[in-house]
Design goal:
The chain is of the alpha/beta class and about 350 residues long. The chain has 3 domains: about 90 residues, Nucleic acid-binding proteins (OB fold (Dihydrolipoamide Acetyltransferase, E2P)), CATH 2.40.50; about 160 residues, 3-Layer(aba) Sandwich (Rossmann fold), CATH 3.40.50; about 90 residues, Probable gtpase engc, domain 3 (Ribonucleotide Reductase Protein R1, domain 1, Orthogonal Bundle). The protein contains 13 helices and 13 strands. Helix 4 packs across helix 11.
Length: about 350
């Protein structure tokens, strides 16, 4: 068997076949990133690697660079004579990405070539349905299957209510509940962790991602910190994305907690499938779901089948995604179009407001 070691790290026929296009190069998988230097596992072990000048020259954005989970082609598979050079990234089968934090419009890849995404949320003061909707919008678009993992069930005062609330926004994703306080508190997630499959742990700081991975691995491989007692929020423990091989053959990617999750691309139709289905039954195809006659979305809200806050979240994320790829002037124009119908109408509205103020 040519790739006995890499098969343990999730190598499939697809990636092996694509690698044959790069004659004289060696296949590997990125397991860690430290700024511009990567740790890559190859058939003969791990090595450090940088990227080639050609790859840098041809890069259009940060997603053109390797990310944890990527399959790459290097100039060597032995690190005894210095760092290797990554010359190519094989086509990704899935990618979980977000808009880079801050004012930058560039994309940041959190994990690549993932089979399942564990969206971890703790059942304490950090519980937030709107944040979960945001995670699911990105996860459903990633190409991987999302699973909602509710952690720290021992801190939840009304577990049944929390499960009902999260199920109302789960959009078909599996929901599992666990607690790391008991020996079997993590077993609800272990069924998803199988040999050769890659799972990325995503969520805010302090939700217990590293603790769960330690439980699954049977040892304290990752550092963990206690949450803050005053507000129940977590402290950053994981500072970099890292791919780990578990004793049962499962592969996990631990990621740092995200303070903000700006959407780069996402699947609104899947994450808000309930609203999309209601909208399809509205009397008018261009219904804005505000006060139009025959609006099934507003009827569902009136009947208590849909919350107003979920509709607000739907609109917010829909608008956010529609701004993707626009420059600041185009974004401003889009906002004016939504609020006033266009720049001309905006000027007229401002003129009317000033006239009223003088009266």
């Amino acid at each position: 068997m040519k790739y006995k070691n890499l098969i343990n790290y999730g190598l499939s026929d697809r990636f092996e076949q694509e690698s044959t296009l790069y004659e004289g190069m060696f296949l590997g998988r990125v397991v860690q990133q430290n700024r511009d230097l990567y740790r890559v596992v190859c058939e003969n072990g791990e090595l450090s690697a940088g990227v080639s000048g050609k790859l840098i020259y041809n890069a259009n954005d940060s997603d053109s660079f390797p990310a944890v989970g990527d399959w790459v082609m290097t100039d060597r598979e032995d690190g005894s004579h210095g760092n290797a050079v990554i010359h190519a990234i094989l086509r990704r089968k899935s990618v979980f990405s977000r808009m880079a934090a801050g004012t930058s419009k560039s994309v940041q890849i959190i994990a690549a070539n993932v089979d399942t995404i564990f969206i971890c949320m703790s059942l304490n003061a950090d519980f937030n349905l709107r944040r979960m909707e945001r995670y699911l919008t990105i996860a459903w678009d990633s190409g991987a299957s999302p699973v909602i993992v509710l952690t720290k069930s021992d801190l939840c005062e009304d577990l049944e209510r929390s499960i009902r609330e999260i199920s109302s926004v789960s959009a078909g994703a599996d929901v599992v509940v666990c607690s790391a306080m008991s020996d079997d508190g993590y077993r609800s997630v272990s069924d998803y962790v199988t040999a050769g499959k890659t799972i990325a742990f995503i969520g805010s700081s302090g939700v217990g991602k590293s603790t769960l991975i330690n439980r699954l691995s049977g040892e304290d491989r990752l550092a963990v910190n206690a949450i803050r007692e005053d507000d129940g929020k977590g402290r950053h423990t994981t500072t970099r994305r890292e791919l780990l091989l578990l004793p049962n053959g499962g592969i996990v990617i631990d990621t740092p907690g995200m303070r903000e999750l700006q959407i780069y691309t996402g699947s609104i139709s899947k994450a808000f499938e309930d609203i999309e289905e209601l909208a399809a039954e509205c009397k008018y195809s261009d219904c804005k779901h505000v006060s139009e006659p025959g609006c099934m979305v507003q009827k569902a809200i009136k009947d208590g089948l849909l919350s107003e806050k979920r509709l607000e979240s739907f609109r917010k994320l829909q608008n956010e995604i529609s701004y993707d790829g626009l420059n600041s002037r185009q974004v401003e124009q889009q906002k004016l179009n939504r609020m006033f119908g266009g720049k001309g109408d905006y000027k007229k509205a401002m003129k009317d407001i000033k006239a009223k103020a003088k009266r």
